[in-house]
Structure formats: C-alpha cells, structure tokens
Amino acid sequence: MIVAMQDAASEDQIQHVIDQLVHMGFEVHRSTGASKTVLGGVGAQLDFDTREVEMMPGVQEVHRITAPYKLAGRNFRPEGTVVKFANGLEIGGKKVMVMAGPCSVESREQLFTVSELIAKAGAKALRGGAFKPRSSPYSFQGMGADGLKLLREAGDRFNLLVVSEVMEISQIDLMLPYVDIFQVGARNMQNFNLLRELGKIRKPVLLKRGIAATLEELLLSAEYLLSGGNYEIILCERGIRTFETYTRNTMDISAIPIVHKLSHLPITADPSHGTGRRDKVAPMALASVAAGADALLIEVHHQPEKAFSDGAQSLYPDQFAKLMDQLRMIAPAVGREIA
Ligand code: PEP
Ligand code: MN
Q1: Whole-model pTM?
Q2: How far is the CA of 259 from the centre of ligand 1 (A)?
Q3: Would the pLDDT of 46 be above 90?
C-alpha cells in the first residue's frame, strides 16, 4: 500500500499514520521529498480497507498495490488452472469447450431433442436449468428434481457433461449425483453461505459474474470457493448491467483477458445472457473465443418461440451448428481448438 501524505501534514500526523500502519501489521518504508512524504506499507492483511487510512488526519491518498484475494490470484498458480473431467475433457487447456442447451429443462421430449442436436453439432456439455432464478415469481420456476434426472439421462445418452444451476444450500446434496458442474448464477454470486458450502464439495463450480459485480468482486467470490478447498472453479462472464438498453446486458468481453491476467482460473463466456438477443449471440461468441475464452455457454432450443424461458436469446439448432463451424475457424487463429 502507498500512502501519500498532504504537503501540509505535520510530523505528528505522519508519525500517527506510521504507528497505525505498524499496528495493522505493515512494515513501513518512509520517503520524504522536498514537500511530500510518501509511506509504503508492505505485508498487508488481505481484508485491509484503504479507507481506514484515508480517513486519518494529514493523509492525501491511499493506493492498494496487492489484490485482496490470494488463492484466486494469478500468482497462486502462474501456469493456470485446468479443470479436468472423467472423459478426458478439460476447461482451461488448449481446447475451448462448448456447453449448450435450453435455458430450462421443460420436458423429456424437449431436453432429448435439444441434447441430440447440440451433441451432433459438437457441444461437449449439456447446460439446462432445473431450478430457475426468475425475476418474476409468476414465471416458470423449473422442473426441480425431475429435471435433474432428465439432464443426467440425456447427458449419458448423448455423451455430454451435465451443468445445472444450484440456487440454495439444500439443493447441493440432491444435485450431486446428477451434475458434473454446479452453476452458480449471477444472482447468487454473492450468496456467501452458498459459496462456502460449494467450497466444501469436490466437484467443479461454474461461477457467473453478478449483474453489477466488478471483476474484483467476482474473484473475491471465487476466493470463497477456493478457500474451502475446492480448486475446480470456472468463472463466467455473462454480461453486466449498464445504461445501454438495446441488449439485455452489456457483454464485457474485456473481462476475459483481464481475468486471465489477474487470475489462474479459466473463464467461460455466455453471450446468450450477455446480449439477450438471438441475432447477437454468434458474433459475441466468436469475439469471446478470439479474446481467449476457455469455454462458451450457449442457449439452444429446438422451438425457441415456445421456450418456457429465454426463448429470444436461444439459438435455433441450425444456427448453433453454423456457429460451431465458425468457431472451428476462429479458434486456430488464436492458438486454440474447439473441443
Ligand atoms: C442461466 O444461465 O440460465 C441464468 C439464469 O443465467 P444468469 O445467472 O447469468 O442470469
Ligand atoms: Mn437462461
């Protein structure tokens, strides 16, 4: 941490700040120029709040230089994390995995139809919601346990990993036998009790960025999972709320290279929720892979106009197959392959 004192700061004020920093556990290095004193604090605690120092008399500004997370930081594993699955698939390596499926599991017929089509096109994971976090309590809330069973059956039939959203702690045990990846949705990114419980299990977690979360907050949420001992964490950029209303969210593609710089964790791009519009999903998916995404999450429905949720952003199966062909051309240009 760097503390710049005001030009007019008295020696007593400077000494007070030094004493407080030492008390907080910092080793303090002082440099005094013609008019200004700057203090460097080394050895911070992770949960340190710079505002505490900013409020001290005589302080002009305070800058944090180390991240508030440790396990999620790139330094913890400079080579990067690769999340591996039983069938040889992985996320975070050279190959980009495509996860696809309907927003919600609606029926056996729907799920099996979509699963077969996405598998044929080259998806490696089936993503479908059995528990749905809906903005309105009057909207379809998901099929629950029956949906999970269908997901597992379809996943096994078409050789697809199964990804589904967990909304609360009580669903974890119920879901364990059915899913390969637990999704934590945007609305639950800061449900810290849920994160703590998911930190205790030994199954991958796909952690979506909150609707208005900074990347630092996303990485702090990942830190909850990692600090419980679960190292199989995959992050997900799914668009953030901005002043733009043309798209459902603003797909923050810059989050992808930024996360790669700040963290060793792989990152998925979800252009379906990122744009909310079927016609904008493919360009954002291609751009995400070009930007370095380790996986994609794409909503697909065989009859989007009849979907129980997110029909407008769900691709038709032929659009998905075409996107897969385009992805196979883009990925090699940036040194990747589509799994
Ligand atoms: C979803 O993946 O269907 C979903 C609800 O996404 P998010 O949590 O990103 O809104
Ligand atoms: Mn959805």
Answers
A1: 0.95
A2: 20
A3: no
